[in-house]
C-alpha cells in the first residue's frame, strides 16, 4: 500500500493539460513519495496528498510536516487501519480514560497531529458515522498524545 518509486510525469502531464483547459480545478496525488511530489510540483500545482497513515503506521511523519509547511492538505487513507482495523491496548486504555471509543481516539489523534490533515474514515454503519463525527470534538490531553505516540514506535505497530 506504499508508493512505488518512479516518474509520474507522463500521467500527470495529461492531467495538468486538462487543468490548463479548465476541465480540472485542483489536482491531488495518492500513494506518492516526497520525491514524486517534487517532480509533480515541477509540472503543476498539487493541493493534496493521500497516503497510508494512522496512529500505528507513521512512515509519512516527516512528509506530513513538510506538506504542512507548504500549505498542502494530507488525507490519510486507512485512518482506522482499513482492512485490518486498529487494535492496540494503548488505544483502548486512552479511550477508556476519556470515556471515548478507540476509533474516536484514533481519529482525534489524527486531527491533532497536524492542521493540514483532513479525515475520510470509511464506514457502512450509521452508528459508526455518528460516533466518528464526534471525534472532531474530542480534545486529547498531552499525556494521552504521548501514550498514543508510543504505538507507532512499538515493534508490533498497533498489534495487541
Ligand atoms: N488512495 C488509496 O490508495 C486508498 C487506499 C485505501 C483506501 N482509500 C480510501 O480511504 C478511505 C478510508 O479507507 P477505508 O474505509 O478502507 O479504511 P478505514 O477508514 O481505515 O477503516 C474502515 C473500517 O473501519 C470500520 N469502522 C469505521 N468506523 C468505525 C467505528 N466507529 N468503530 C468500529 N469500526 C469502524 C469500518 O467498518 P464499518 O463499516 O462496520 O463501520 C471499516 O471496516 C476511503 O475513502 C477509501 O476509498 C484510498
Characterise this structure.
The protein has helices spanning 9-20, 34-41, 61-70, 89-97, 102-113, 126-134, 142-153; strands at residues 28-30, 48-50, 73-74. It has 160 residues and is mainly alpha-helical. It has two domains: 1-46, no CATH class; 48-160, TIM Barrel, CATH 3.20.20. It has a three-stranded parallel sheet, covered by helices on one side. Strand 1 (28-30), helix 2 (34-41) and strand 2 (48-50) form a beta-alpha-beta unit. Helix 4 (89-97) crosses helix 5. The longest helix is centred in the N-terminal third of the chain and has 12 residues, at 9-20. The structure holds NADP nicotinamide-adenine-dinucleotide phosphate. The site of NADP nicotinamide-adenine-dinucleotide phosphate has 20 residues, from helix 6.
Offer a few descriptive terms.
single chain, 160 residues, mainly alpha, TIM Barrel, 2 domains, three-stranded parallel β-sheet, 7 helices, 45% helix, disordered C terminus, binds NADP nicotinamide-adenine-dinucleotide phosphate
Amino acid at each position: 500500500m506504499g508508493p512505488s518509486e518512479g516518474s509520474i510525469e507522463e500521467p500527470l502531464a495529461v492531467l495538468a493539460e486538462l487543468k490548463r483547459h479548465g476541465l480540472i480545478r485542483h489536482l491531488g496525488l495518492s500513494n506518492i513519495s516526497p520525491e514524486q511530489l517534487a517532480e509533480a510540483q515541477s509540472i503543476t500545482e498539487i493541493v493534496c496528498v493521500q497516503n497510508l497513515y494512522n496512529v500505528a503506521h507513521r512512515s509519512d511523519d516527516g512528509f506530513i510536516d513538510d506538506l504542512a509547511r507548504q500549505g498542502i492538505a494530507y488525507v490519510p487513507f486507512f485512518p482506522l487501519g482499513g482492512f485490518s482495523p486498529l487494535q492496540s491496548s494503548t488505544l483502548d486504555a486512552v479511550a477508556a480514560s476519556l470515556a471515548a471509543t478507540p476509533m474516536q481516539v484514533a481519529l482525534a489523534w489524527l486531527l491533532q497531529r497536524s492542521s493540514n490533515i483532513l479525515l475520510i474514515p470509511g464506514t457502512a454503519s450509521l452508528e459508526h458515522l455518528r460516533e466518528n463525527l464526534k471525534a472532531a470534538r474530542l480534545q486529547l490531553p498531552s499525556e494521552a498524545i504521548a501514550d498514543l505516540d508510543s504505538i507507532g514506535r512499538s515493534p508490533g505497530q498497533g498489534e495487541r
